[in-house]
Design brief:
The protein has three domains: 10-44, no CATH class; 52-186, Rossmann fold (3-Layer(aba) Sandwich), CATH 3.40.50.2300; 199-258, Arc Repressor Mutant, subunit A. The chain is built from eleven helices and eight strands. It has helices spanning 31-44, 63-75, 88-98, 114-124, 139-147, 160-171, 179-186, 204-214, 219-226, 230-244, 249-258; strands at residues 16-21, 24-28, 54-59, 79-85, 102-106, 129-134, 152-155, 176-177. Helix 3 packs parallel to helix 4, helix 8 crosses helix 10 (230-244) and helix 9 (219-226) packs across helix 10 (230-244). The longest helix is centred in the C-terminal third of the chain and has 15 residues, at 230-244. It starts with 15 loop residues before the first strand and ends in a 5-residue tail after the last helix.
């Protein structure tokens, strides 16, 4: 018999006291405390060794992110990390060999990006549920990945609580898009109270800059291609946003990807 005991720091469970009802004190606790509480409950569950674990593969080009998420999910014993990699080709082989329940897939993975990689992953393991992961808060990217078969889309700004929520939603067979993306989508130029963007208002040089922005080039790269200063490119980009009545670059990229107008 295993007499090993588990001790968890009381500080993790500090939270806001809600109310006292029927002798029970309700306390609002942090996501970390929630995870630790689940761990404790699992230790007390006599049937925990009979529970089917959810297999997970982590595909991200940043080793620190893979390690952090791996440690997070390992704390919840219903998850099993069956592979992790920062290479898209290796990811395909891992999925081929493990057929995981969930794949976290960074859309910026190399040598083939997430948009290409997801197609082969789902051909190899169609029952795997892919959650797209990105540093970009672009609704167009989320729409494209969902269209390619992803069951979820979260950003690297997503909280622990939201990551766990996303997993719960897609395990039930539903689709999850993080709140950050939904908030930006709500500010899209399709809003009836906003003036629709008019590309005819742009100068020839501004159109050229816009074409390079659509290709994903930075202001520094655009300045080198057009042989103009970085500052000049930034001025052009500011004028483009103003003329098209858009708030920021993510809104601009969102418009370019959804617009049927060719540039």
């Amino acid at each position: 018999m295993n007499d090993r005991k588990h001790f968890y720091p009381l500080a993790c469970f500090k939270g806001k006291t809600d109310r006292l009802s029927n002798g029970i004190l309700f306390v609002q606790i942090s996501p970390l405390a929630t995870i630790l509480l689940i761990c404790i409950l699992e230790e007390l569950n006599p049937k925990r060794h009979l529970m089917t674990k959810i297999s997970v593969v982590l595909v991200d080009d940043h080793a620190l992110i893979r390690e952090s998420w791996s440690q997070l999910l390992k704390m919840l014993r219903q998850f099993e990390i069956v592979g992790d990699t920062g290479d898209s080709q290796e990811a395909i082989e891992i999925v081929r060999n493990t057929r995981p329940d969930i794949v976290f897939l960074d859309i910026n993975i190399k040598p083939r990006d997430g948009f290409e990689t997801i197609k082969e992953l789902l051909e190899i393991s169609p029952k795997s549920k892919v959650i797209a992961l990105s540093m970009y808060t672009l609704p167009a990217y989320a729409k494209k990945m969902i269209g390619l078969g992803a069951r979820g889309y979260i950003t690297k700004n997503s909280s622990v609580e939201e990551i766990l929520e996303a997993i719960g939603v897609i395990i039930k067979g539903e689709v999850y898009v993080c709140r950050e993306i939904l908030d930006i989508s709500a500010e899209s130029p399709n809003d009836k109270n906003q003036r629709a963007p008019n590309l005819n208002l742009l100068s020839e040089r501004e159109v050229k800059v816009l074409q390079y922005v659509k290709q994903g080039m930075s202001s520094r790269e655009i300045s080198e291609v057009l042989n103009i200063s970085y500052r000049t490119v930034e001025v052009h980009r500011h004028k483009i946003l103003k003329k098209l009545n858009l708030k920021n670059t993510p809104s601009l990229i969102n418009y370019l990807n959804f617009s049927s107008t060719d540039i």
